[in-house]
Amino acid sequence: MRDPSPTPEETTEPYRWRWLILAVMIVAEIMDLLDASIVNVAGPDLEKSLGAGSVGLQWVIGGYALTLGAGLVLGGRLGDRYGRRRMFLIGLAAFTAASLLCAIAPNIGALIAFRLLQGAAGAMLLPQGLGLLRENFSGPELTRVFAVFGPVLGLGGIIGPVLGGFLIEGDFFGLGWRSVFLINLPIGIAALIVAAKFVPKKA
User: The whole model's pTM is what?
Assistant: First the structure.
């Protein structure tokens, strides 16, 4: 006969702020994926502002994807070894800082270097999201979370060129192409503050 007393898993209450963690993960991961495509429409502006040639533009666009893709396995291993919360916060802070560096880049060479750095930071950030969600959700809730998480992330690649075009065409405050990177600052800082406060330290 089964012991009627509840198991530890049954008596452990779900983490109170777990849905806020989901919101932060979605925002951070979309920001990461968005930057893979948001600069695709900035070519003409970069040519005028920085004198970027075709090779330089290819590196600005492809360099990010290169370091992002190459670093994903390492980012996942670092999360396993040093903790997903820690690596998520480090990756998010580095990504936000790299976005600022991209926005103030004085020439195309510096922009390429900062885009490579931004991709590397994204590679630290991206693998931690799913792990953190698995640690804070379980059972049917986890299924619902992934049902939301996957499609929303897919929108990142679609929204990128649209948002980039809107920001460049609007030329807000005369920032031109720099605004496609500066938009990450308020989003990244807000996500960093919320994650630091609400993602459990055991993660």
Answer: 0.85
